Amino acid sequence: FLDTSVHIPSTMNFKVSVLVFLWVSQLLADSTWENTELTTHIWRACSEGDAVRLAAMAVRTPNAVTARSADGRGALFWAYEYNQPRIVNLLLNAGADEDAEDADGKKPKDFAPAGFELAPSDETFADIAPKMETPPPAYNNDDEEDDDEEEDEDEDEDEDDEDEL
After folding, report:
1. How far apart are CA 101 and CA 106, in angstroms?
2. Which one, of 59, 139, 73, 136, lies nearest residue 106 by Cα?
């Protein structure tokens, strides 16, 4: 005799299953390494020591702290590489993974210059965010629209020049 009944997990088991699924999904989403507009802006902020700009990105785009470029490096790697202890602290306080490895198996601290010193700090991106004078930029791939707008402006200028002749 074949039992054809369907086993429905208890509500608690179902909730745990959903939470595990969401956690794994987030891990997989965060593990995508690619060069994007966002990673370029993060690199610039880290290399220039611009904590306010990085805070704007972290507030507007929560995955800015964990975003990784094609080589597997991200904000924490660059903050160490460019000798930016304040940004390193901000990133660590925001949950950046100090044990993350890039494509070559190197950790963020491996990029710290000789003599790099890190003094503990409780400062967070939320402490800096109110200091922003302008809203943070949007990070999308609508570069084509920007190019079209520039072409329209160029055409308008050409027409003005012809009118003057």
Report:
1. 5
2. 73
